[in-house]
Specification:
Layout (H helix, E strand, L loop, with lengths): L3 E5 L12 E6 L5 H10 L5 E4 L1 H5 L3 H9 L3 E4 L9 H4 L1
Parallel strand pairs: 1-2, 2-3, 3-4
Helix pairs in contact: 1-3
């Protein structure tokens, strides 16, 4: 079964969440209000992923909230931008 991914970089992206979305990626920020709204309105979400930048700006309350709802947390360690071909090999 394929799981849809959705990348969120602003509140306007919340309109794009459909019932098929299982993974939400935060590119720039993640506020407690935003995460709480997603968890309350979309129970099908199984995983939240964070860019290195967005995870560094998050409060520990956000990660606690996600863990209490039994949703997996992934922090991507790669830098921003297009990956280097040498890194991909």
């Amino acid at each position: 079964m394929n799981v849809k991914h959705l990348s969120i970089s602003s509140y306007a992206d919340l309109e794009k969440i459909s019932p098929a979305v299982g993974i939400v990626h935060f590119r720039k920020f993640a506020s407690e209000k935003l995460v709480r709204w997603i968890l309350e309105n979309h129970s099908q979400i199984r995983k939240f992923s964070f860019s290195k930048y967005s995870s560094s700006r998050c409060d520990s309350n956000i990660f606690d909230l996600i863990e209490r709802n039994n949703v997996q947390i992934v922090v991507q360690d790669r830098g921003s931008g297009r990956p280097n071909l040498l890194e991909m090999i």
